[in-house]
Amino acid sequence: MANKTNPLPNLYALLIRIDHYLPNQLPDGSYYPNFHGSVHDINHLADFLKVKIKLQDEQMLTLTARC
């Protein structure tokens, strides 16, 4: 049931942040670059979900991969 502190109790978020992909090469030999800043960006998204959507920490799961 919704309440003032948590209006969306059945809403959950899975946040995945990856800056570095290995081996950076596709089977055909083409190369793709790593991202820069996705970890920073996902922190802003988490803040938005907490402030604007009122999600609680236990409603968010963040997976991080960086090298």
Key terms for this structure?
2 strands; 21% helix; single chain; 67 residues; two-stranded parallel ribbon; alpha+beta
Structure, briefly:
This protein is of the alpha+beta class.
DSSP helix fraction: 10-25%
Order of helices and strands: EHE
The number of distinct β-strands equals 2
Runs in which pLDDT lies below 50 for 5 or more consecutive residues are none
Q: What is the strand content?
A: 15-25%
Helical/strand content category = alpha+beta
Our measurement of the CA-to-CA distance between the termini, rounded to an integer number of angstroms, reads: 41 Å
Strand order of the largest sheet: 1-2
Q: What would you call the shape?
A: elongated
Mean pLDDT equals: 82
Number of helices: 1
Largest sheet: 2 strands, parallel
Radius of gyration: 16 Å
